[in-house]
């Protein structure tokens, strides 16, 4: 039980830290409200489940050693983050016509769910996060059942963390503050997405050259 708790705490620390997924979820919660953010967060969580199953199956090790497969995934993920950076920059420059709110009016609930899945699936670094968290409480002699229990704990933590972001950042006071500072927030978010995307692409090619 203590080992599972350690796994859950380790994964919570990783999951709650600011990153592209959490930043985008917080922005959506502030601009579009709790319901859409919860749906988007559920998509993010499903993306986490995908990488969790990959890590638990041992494919995570294969992925880390497969230079071209990992490079392709990182380039795809980096380009997607750069696209998000472009959209955020566009909203910052012209918030009246190119805001997240305008996008929300034309995107279905299913569309937001899929966007969440795509964002987390496009980041293969999540495999490393999963493996790091699981390694905190797993021993060499632990059974497959215990491994799957650890995965289930992390899945629960992932859903709870994304829901926490949706709830906290969708309070009226936070949303009102966003409306006044949306230009600066979107500009900052654009910069963070751009740095993350460029870093992911750079790490893809640096890994290949190192190999």
TrEMBL record:
Domain of life: Bacteria
Main location: membrane
Membrane topology annotation: Multi-pass membrane protein
Recorded GO CC terms: plasma membrane
Keywords linked to the UniProt accession: Cell membrane, Membrane, Transmembrane, Transmembrane helix
Subcellular location field: Cell membrane
One GO molecular-function entry: amino acid transmembrane transporter activity
Transmembrane feature ranges: 39-63, 75-93, 113-133, 145-178, 184-205
The protein, known as: LysE family translocator
């Amino acid at each position: 039980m203590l080992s599972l708790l350690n796994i859950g705490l380790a994964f919570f620390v990783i999951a709650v830290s600011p990153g592209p997924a959490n930043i985008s979820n917080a922005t959506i919660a502030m601009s579009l409200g709790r319901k859409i953010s919860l749906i988007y967060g559920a998509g993010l969580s499903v993306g986490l489940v995908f990488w969790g199953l990959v890590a638990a199956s041992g494919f995570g090790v294969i992925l880390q050693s497969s230079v071209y497969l990992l490079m392709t995934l990182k380039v795809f993920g980096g380009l997607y983050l750069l696209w998000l950076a472009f959209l955020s920059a566009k909203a910052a420059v012209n918030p009246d016509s190119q805001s997240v709110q305008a996008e929300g009016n034309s995107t279905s609930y299913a569309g937001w769910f899929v966007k969440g899945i795509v964002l987390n699936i496009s980041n293969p670094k999540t495999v490393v996060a999963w493996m790091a968290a699981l390694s905190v409480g797993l021993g060499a002699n632990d059974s497959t059942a215990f491994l799957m229990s650890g995965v289930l704990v992390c899945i629960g933590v992932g859903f709870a963390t994304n829901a926490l972001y949706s709830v906290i950042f969708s309070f009226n006071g936070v949303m009102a503050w966003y409306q006044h500072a949306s230009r600066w927030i979107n500009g900052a978010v654009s910069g963070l997405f751009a740095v993350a995307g460029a870093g992911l692409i750079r790490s893809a090619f640096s890994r290949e050259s190192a190999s």
